[in-house]
Here is the input.
Amino acid sequence: MGFYEYNAAYRPPIPICQIYLGPGGSEATFGPMEAVIDTGADVTVIPTEYLNQINARRVSRGRARSLWGDARDVDIYAISLRVNGLQIPALQALADNQGDEIVLGRFVLNRLKIILDGPAAVTEIGA
Here is the structure.
C-alpha cells in the first residue's frame, strides 16, 4: 500500500499520489510526479510539457467536454504510467497545453484500490 497526504495548497485539500510516466509501450520511469486523483474525470490529463519530455506519440485528436459543458479540441497521446507499483503500459491521455497539473481519471483509478480518508487527509492506494 502507498500512503499520500492530501495537497493542502488546494481549498479544500485534494487527494494526490505520486506517478511515473513513459511513452506508450515503454516502462514508465519519468518522475516521480504529483498527480491529482479526480474520480469525476473519465480520462487522464497530462500537461503537454511532460508529454514532450517523455517523447510520447500523438495518436489522434478528439473533443473534450468540461464539467460546465464547454468543449475544446485536444490531442490524445499514447503513454505508460506507473502508480504504486502498478505499471500500465498502454494508456491514452489528453494533452493539456494550458495547465500544469496531472489529473488521473477513472480509466486509471478503476484499476486501483483507493481509500480517500478525508478526515485524516490521506489517500491509501493498493494495486
Remarks:
- The radius of gyration is 14 Å.
